[in-house]
Amino acid sequence: MRIDKFLWCVRYFKTRTIATTACKKGHVKVNGDSVKPSRDVYATDKIEVRKDQINYTLTINDLPPNRVGAKLVDIYRTDTTPKEAFTANELLKYSKDYYRKKGTGRPTKKDRRDIEEYRGENEIESDI
Question: What does the pLDDT look like over 67-94, one tens digit per residue?
Answer without folding.
Answer: 999 999 999 999 898 888 788 777 777 6
